Target: ROK family protein
Amino acid sequence: MSIRLLVYRCRVLTPLALAVDFGGTKVEAALVDSDGRLVPDSRHRRPTGRTASVADLESSVGDVVRAAASALPEGAEIVGVGIGCAGPIDRRRGLVSPLNVPDWRDYPLRDFIASVVGAGEGGLGLDIPVTLEMDGVAITMAEHWVGAAQGVDNVMGMVISTGIGGGLIVDGRVITGPTGNAGHIGHVEVGDIVGEDTFGNASALEAMASGPHTVAWARTQGFAGTTGEELAAAYAAGDPIARDAIARTGQAVGRAIASATALLDLELVAIGGGFSHSTPDLFDRMREVIDHHYFPFVRKVRIVPSALSSEGPLIGAAALIHRATLLPA
Amino acid sequence: MSIRLLVYRCRVLTPLALAVDFGGTKVEAALVDSDGRLVPDSRHRRPTGRTASVADLESSVGDVVRAAASALPEGAEIVGVGIGCAGPIDRRRGLVSPLNVPDWRDYPLRDFIASVVGAGEGGLGLDIPVTLEMDGVAITMAEHWVGAAQGVDNVMGMVISTGIGGGLIVDGRVITGPTGNAGHIGHVEVGDIVGEDTFGNASALEAMASGPHTVAWARTQGFAGTTGEELAAAYAAGDPIARDAIARTGQAVGRAIASATALLDLELVAIGGGFSHSTPDLFDRMREVIDHHYFPFVRKVRIVPSALSSEGPLIGAAALIHRATLLPA
Model:
């Protein structure tokens, strides 16, 4: 190809990332442009889950990747695949061991997806980079790119849902850690508030403040519901147990944020995930802890809701390609 | 000066940093070469302390800076001043508020030292950069440069002494945080083990595991001594209360290291400070916590004693000049 043709081609083809988000209940894929927008009709979803076999999981992942790729519009090209996956992971080797998917331990997800899109037999014939990071890292990059953390150099992204996860941007750069597991804020200890056991650690934030653990604590106090949605409804109706449960969880999250800020001098924490939407008061309970901290540099940290829709994890996975310069070499 | 002369000069003058370490009990200064070695007879010390006035403190700082500078050997030049100071600090504005020096709140230490060495009236006439960072940041840079963390890209330096402080190197770069206060590991919370109150936070690591707090806890159990040295002696003699106190403190430090590693995927923690020398068993108690952690990426972190002598804080302050490329821009 002549230089003239090459220049022409670079100017007209819209670069798209093929974004993959793999979690404990579902896997999704979509095409995402360099402004963080999903290509219409390119988003596809399949179930995963604790009981899925390796063959089931590979079938689901392969299906969504191929379905997303087939939505490629005319005049566009796929320039890379970004994968956000539930942790722990091994970023150097591209292996994943999602806690809620017991059949995958050191599973080579990056290589599997590379084979689906690649030039080998049965592949899509694309010669493009495939990047794997933890989902909390991806979603933090999405907040920084098009969400609540735009223009902020020292950020923790958090998801409060079935579990509690996160990711870090420090001094404008993404912190993955050498193995890819930096950002496990759910496994930072919190003092004083004794919770239920998670992986043997009753003091881990996740063991106190995830959706299911908050509901479980409320049930020990007499709450009759079984879901986060029911707890949120009870809170809205003024139920005193729900009020105590939200206060306790907000305080626990606030204390973990205080610890992370003491360690990293954070400027902003952006929080999403289903349980974070229970009530805006949850954020007020977190902020009370911060507002009463003894260090001014801890009090400065802002805590805000995520500005991302349910597309956030996919936008974050796409950021691994479109914003690759923020990642470690 | 002609280019030829300039080249000649650059080749023969040995570049030295003027290193300053300011703490709650003393201030020290020395000249340090680009291999991290102190110039003989250049190290000077003056007292600081809780009762010192601003004039006393400025007199002490000025004295050690001038005394160190006057030790400049023939054939050498001072290329910069590096200051490590007890936190909190404000790195952008060069202000310090050391917890144990109540008369200094937002005190402009960087500008004061710049005036001592600078071209103005009464100054030494040097036109050189003056860099201020927290002492924990400096000592972590010293471990990474010539100590126990050489060649490791993801490191936490810790000091266990009257208080507990630290600093971070992540992906080979020093993390200062936007205000300069990243590394406050003593103010990360630890679950389950309830300690005495520090700044209103009984769950902060420092409130459980600093030298004075460990002794205070032992005294609640019947220990008759009052110093860390006495506790170490009692431990060596097999005293059961001293044994419990060391176990409790080691466990608390181990749990804080586990939290920091969950958040930052650390590879190595290097620990110095007077109380860390109480007994090597203290390190074994920390390692037991890590060895039993549920995440392999947490279990990988190594915990080692500092490889620095009492010169460590000065070498770290010098690293702010000689290793300035590791700092944020």
